[in-house]
Predict the 3D structure of the following.
Amino acid sequence: MIDVLFTELILKYLKSQSKSRITGKYYPSELPWCLRKIYYDYTIGKDKDLESKLVMVSGTLMHSFISDVLKFAKSEGFDVQSEVEYEYEKDGIVISGRADNVILLRSSNSEDTYVVEIKSKSKLPDEPRIEHIMQLNFYLHFNPGAKGYLLYITRDGFNMRAFEVNYSEELFKKLVDRAIILHNHIINNTLPDAEYWHGECLKCPYRNICFSVKKSLNSQE
């Protein structure tokens, strides 16, 4: 009984924290992923399942702990900035977001600046995901000369693995182009192509709608 009560409270809390989407304003954490899913987010807005929401909660709790560590880091001579806001505009389309898990780290003993994007995972990857690289690359655009790192942390054992990421103007332009493509599909009410990743489709809240569209198109061929 109590577990059901807490589950309901968690769901209601998460719903109260959700923000309505604005056409023309897009997020660097989403743009590298399937554009059809993001299109559905803006036009249908179906909720994530409970498991996906709880994964987000665990990531938030980890970020809260990291924030406490960073407060301590300041006493150790580091210049730390977290929850940094970035915004890029082109042709009336805005890519914007508060980077809750991005950390700007400078040591008093060095002129180097580090932009660290933290990702919580069930297990450590052997290589960073290109979607995560594109997201971090967006933040590096606003910090010329900074060294970028993707820091993966396991949710259970707090094991860590870091990957260095160098800024790429090509990747930045690709992210901007994806925002423009998505925006044009939304305002013209046309469906983007589905982009497939192993495992991602199975977790997508729009999988049944998406698969039915694909099946319908195949039957017309």
Confidence is low (pLDDT under 50) at residues 215-221. The chain is about 45% helix and 25% strand. Helices lie at 2-17, 35-43, 50-75, 130-141, 169-188, 200-203, 207-220.
